[in-house]
Each structure stands twice: as structure tokens, then as C-alpha cells.
Write a structure and sequence with these properties.
Helix content: over 70%
Number of helices: 4
Strand content: under 5%
Oligomer: single chain
Low-confidence stretches: none
Order of helices and strands: HHHH
Radius of gyration: 14 Å
Largest sheet: none
Shape: globular
Mean pLDDT: 84
Length: 98
């Protein structure tokens, strides 16, 4: 079994964080630009994460990892909320996720 060096792991993590940040930025734009007044659902949350990951990385293990990472930082829907309101909630996370 091969173990990455600390430098390789650090580089991988930066790239991973950049992908998450880009995915969150995509989600904010999509939620704001498309039907922002419609109800946000957990299915829409999953769909946005999956769409971004697979459009960017294809159907790969890295895309699966990105979907999991995005869903970890995108809060679950626990109350009635619009897509636009949800975008406002996750927007700070897009810039702060490092």
C-alpha cells in the first residue's frame, strides 16, 4: 500500500477544498438564478450537488467524494424555505470553506 507524503496530501486537500468551494458557488448561482422563489427540498439539494460533481468530473470516484463533501457542508432542509433563502444560507460557506 502506498501512502501519500504530507506534501501530496496537503495538495490533494487544497484541490478538494477548491472543488467544494466551486460547487457551493455553483449551487448559490443556480438557486438564485433558477426559480429562487420555489420551495427548496432535500431532493433539490442532492440534485444540485450531483449535477455539479458529475458535470465537472464525470461519473467517477472523485465525483462521488465531491458529492459527499458538498452534502456535508450544505445543511439539510429542516423547514419550509425557498431556494433563494437557502442560497443566502450557504453563500458564506462557499467563501469560508478552506
Amino acid at each position: 500500500m502506498t501512502y501519500p507524503s504530507q506534501a501530496e496530501e496537503a495538495l490533494r486537500q487544497v484541490t478538494r477544498d477548491e472543488r467544494v468551494r466551486a460547487g457551493l458557488t455553483y449551487a448559490v448561482q443556480r438557486l438564485t438564478d433558477r426559480r429562487s422563489h420555489h420551495v427548496m427540498t432535500d431532493v433539490a439539494r442532492l440534485a444540485i450537488a450531483q449535477r455539479y460533481a458529475t458535470d465537472t468530473l464525470g461519473w467517477t470516484d472523485v465525483a462521488d467524494e465531491l458529492i459527499r463533501d458538498l452534502l456535508t457542508v450544505m445543511p439539510e432542509i429542516t423547514r419550509d424555505i425557498t431556494r433563494g433563502e437557502y442560497a443566502v444560507i450557504i453563500q458564506p460557506t462557499a467563501g469560508a470553506h478552506r
